[in-house]
TrEMBL record:
PANTHER family for this protein: PROTEIN MEMO1
One Pfam family matching this protein: Memo
Family: Belongs to the MEMO1 family.
Protein name: Protein MEMO1
Amino acid sequence: MVGSISNDWEETYGKILAPYLADPQNLFVISSDFCHWGARFRYTYYEESHGPIYKWIEVLDKMGMDLIETLKPESFAEYLRKYNNTICGRHPIGVLLQVPD
């Protein structure tokens, strides 16, 4: 389990876990929900140009998913800094993205 850690620790754990991720005998499950929008989550960022709030959340989450697919940790980290999206699994995802090729 990965809790709230810094980007430096994501990189450290990515390097530690790399040989285990490379072993086809091992299975890692990285699971996350994405945007939690609303006052109770202290997240109400909204770009009205995208239409209703649910459409904005869809765009916001899709941006994050697309960046994860690039496997570039710095791009995902920049997205999180820019939008502050409330992705609960941001740190486990960050660890996975830090695994060297």
